[in-house]
């Protein structure tokens, strides 16, 4: 991930990584994907986006550890 001089990840890179977590993921409804997209592109805080990416990645790993057998929704985790 590219970084600014301050060491903070570039917002565009964070947005891209978060979008990859949500879009096309069958665990999220179309409405959840739209809400996530809105939040991802409205947020200007790199630290907040980084925390959200870490939490979402951990939650998905925890809820969907082995394969497509689990279809648990993460509603409420989106925004």
From TrEMBL:
<protein>
    <submittedName>
        <fullName>Uncharacterized protein</fullName>
    </submittedName>
</protein>
């Amino acid at each position: 991930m590219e970084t600014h001089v301050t060491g903070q990840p570039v917002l565009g890179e964070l947005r891209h990584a978060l979008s990859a977590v949500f879009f096309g993921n069958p665990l999220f409804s179309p409405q959840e994907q739209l809400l996530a997209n809105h939040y991802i592109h409205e947020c200007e805080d790199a630290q907040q986006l980084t925390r959200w990416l870490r939490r979402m990645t951990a939650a998905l790993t925890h809820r969907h550890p082995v394969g497509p057998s689990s279809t648990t929704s993460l509603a409420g985790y989106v925004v």
